[in-house]
Amino acid sequence: MNHTTEKSSILLIYTGGTIGMMKNPVTGALENFNFDQLLEYVPEIKGFNLNIYSIAFEPPIDSSDISPESWSELVRIIYSNYERYDGFVILHGTDTMAFTASALSFMLEGLMKPVILTGSQLPIGALRTDGKENLLTAIEIAAAKHEDGTPIAPEVCVFFHEKLMRGNRTTKVSADNFDAFESNNYPLLAHSGIELQFYNQNIKPYNPDAVLTPHYEMDPNIIIFSLFPGMQPEIVKKMMRDKKLKGVIFRTFGSGNAPRQEWLVKALSQATLSGKTIVNITQCSTGSVKMGLYETGRQLLESGIISGHDSTVEAALTKLMFLLGKGLGAEEIRQQMNISIAGEVTL
Question: Domains (ranges, CATH) in the chain?
């Protein structure tokens, strides 16, 4: 395989985040640097036999401020440039990178080119930055092709600290370490050591007949609700009765269990009967929801709650936003949540 096919074209999209920041010598504060200065800080890019172009959000967005509108803008950029480039690298803040990667995996239906998100824990101008390695390897992955010219990784991915992960299987696990992301319920797509090793059996197969269909609407009228001992009934009931609320990502104990409290079961049942979609995912970092395994899980199943299987929080949330944004009814959403749209769950 040719890991960098001759003169492939790559588009770098800078949204904001630590990787594109420099320290102000007067104030000591981190500030966004001019993206045109990239080659000054990462001259190694010139070593690629690639055509590399860049575009930046104006102004750049801190990842804490990323919104569904930001995701729609990324979809517009990728869709409008899809035929011009062989791959895309999105430079993004780490805090919400897994949310963006998950959202794009649904919004870019029929994607057959690499979209690689990366970032860093230290600014790219810092002495010990992890940004250079992450950026350079992400570019190499975005340009990587098989001998027949097809892309090796034609899906939305996150590359961070030597690991290429499926975007909608990824979650941030550390605020301090360079190894900040994990894909707990799905194996790596590639590993970057002395050589870049792809695990093709884990990567979405290339489909020459696929046509990119962009989606721009995401419905954010959703909450994430984690169970905990001592929940107060009136607070939960009020939340579930909110007329603007359309969906709940319900983070339960273990394999999908909840307290056997009559008030809770009734509140959840009334919410689903009113048309709200409630998706059950585990609070555990690994494993899957199995609602029929214990009585405490079966009661949720009988209340009309949908299994999120082994979804991450980020994937479950953005998938539900996506399905609600398409205007689907409760039964259609139930059906879609029980299939894998973009490799986000193991069934």
Answer: 8-214 (3.40.50.1170), 222-337 (3.40.50.40)
